[in-house]
Design goal:
The chain has helices spanning about 25-35, 50-60, 75-85, 130-140, 155-170; strands spanning about 10-15, 40, 65-75, 90-95, 115-120, 140-145. With about 180 residues, it is of the alpha/beta class. It has a single domain (about 15-170), classed as Alpha/Beta hydrolase fold, catalytic domain (Rossmann fold, 3-Layer(aba) Sandwich).
Length: about 180
């Protein structure tokens, strides 16, 4: 008997200097599974060009049917945001995303058309937290600034809670604002 096809997926995109199953991704994959999602992590090692990473993520997700939540850390955050509308993502969860950074292609106008949450460390010396503030303001994303650095390792437990809340909130009825 064949196993049922999963209809809820979380796809992780790691940063430039890390790998597909680092500490944050492994911790958040547990949360995703506990909320009924299948967890995937794309391996971008050896791919430095941001557009090539976006192409790899889009290609990877083509085979996934159902709800898709993208999670990205650092450069993976840029990749997740850039891919979200192309993949019709249900939501995007970002950790210290490399947005508005010199050397990266500019984000398209209206690049995001789904709910988003951003977690960033006050003491990030790689990507200024102000970039996440700018993004959150532009897209009305939830923004969580934590006492941490770029890696956010001392806040993994808090990030797990924030991610769990984010996934649960995706299933809640939308609230109309006037």
């Amino acid at each position: 008997m064949q196993a049922p096809v999963a209809s809820r997926h979380v796809v992780f995109s790691h940063g430039q200097e890390s790998g597909p199953w680092g500490r944050k991704i492994s911790a958040l994959a547990e949360v995703a599974r506990s909320e009924g999602y299948v967890a995937h992590s794309v391996d971008y090692r050896g791919i430095d060009e941001p557009r090539a990473r976006v192409a790899k993520l889009v290609d990877f997700c083509k085979e996934l049917a159902g709800d898709l939540v993208l999670v990205g850390s650092s450069l993976g955050g840029y990749v997740a945001v850039t891919s979200a509308s192309l993949l019709h993502a249900r939501g995007v969860f970002l950790m210290a995303p490399a947005l508005y950074m010199q050397g990266l292609p500019e984000l398209r106008a209206s690049v995001l058309d789904c709910p988003a949450a951003v977690v960033h460390g006050w003491r990030d010396d790689v990507v200024p937290f102000e970039h996440s503030v700018r993004f959150a303001q532009a897209y009305r994303a939830a923004l969580h600034l934590l006492e941490s650095d770029h890696r956010l390792h001392n806040q993994i437990r808090v990030i797990q809670y924030l991610f769990e809340y984010f996934l649960i909130a995706l299933d809640l009825p939308a609230i109309a604002f006037e």
